[in-house]
Amino acid sequence: MKPYLIYSLMLNALLINMALAEDKETNELGTMTNDVQMFIRFNDGSASIKTNELFTMLVGIINRSTNSTLRIDKTRIFSDDFDFICVITSPAGKDLSPVKHEMLRDSSWSVPVPPNQTYKFEVNSGNLAEFDELGTYTIVAKERIKVDGKADFWVVSNPLRLLVVPGEWKDTNAPPVGFKF
């Protein structure tokens, strides 16, 4: 009886380890496109928030090329950055992706990413959507990449899953602080 129990425990541990490794592997990096990969992760390592709680994501663009420098155009104001897009799907399957309106860019610059280097930046969730529905959201980032002498292309990140759990309820119809009847 003892060998059966030991083998059963070892098999369970192996299966759990394989499941965790598989999940980590698929959530680490997006698909490689023209020697470029992209990832998004939670900055603090957590994968859940309370309703409407702000969080920060770390975005990375990896140049796997051995001889080409990438250019990534960035702007000072997130809503003006048409080369970076987040596709957000709610637990109900609704597209919550931020709508960006074409306008003049306030100030922009080009970031060079040399071969075998990674460019990282943070994205605040306050710029994306309201995460007020309970359940699991899926976030996928996309970035337009420029390489001299080649056509622009888009690189897509891994899907990032965000679990929204109940938080503190806030009445949106409450009178302002200090208001008296």
Describe the protein.
The protein has 181 residues and is an alpha+beta fold. The chain has one domain: Intracellular proteinase inhibitor BsuPI (Immunoglobulin-like). The strands form 2 sheets. Strands 2, 4, 5, 6, 8, 9 and 10 form a 7-stranded mixed beta sheet that branches. The protein has a 3-stranded antiparallel beta sheet with strand order 1-3-7, with no helix packed on it. β8 and β9 form a beta hairpin. About 6% of the residues have low confidence.
What is the rounded Rg?
21 Å
What is the ordering of alpha helices and beta strands?
Answer: HEEEEEEEEEE
Tally of alpha and pi helices: 1
Silhouette: globular
The assigned structural class equals alpha+beta
Helix content, binned percent: 10-25%
Task: Name the average pLDDT.
Answer: 79
Count up the domains.
1
According to DSSP, the number of beta strands is 10
- Largest sheet: number of strands, sense, barrel closure: 7 strands, mixed
The CATH architecture is Sandwich
Write down the CATH class.
Mainly Beta
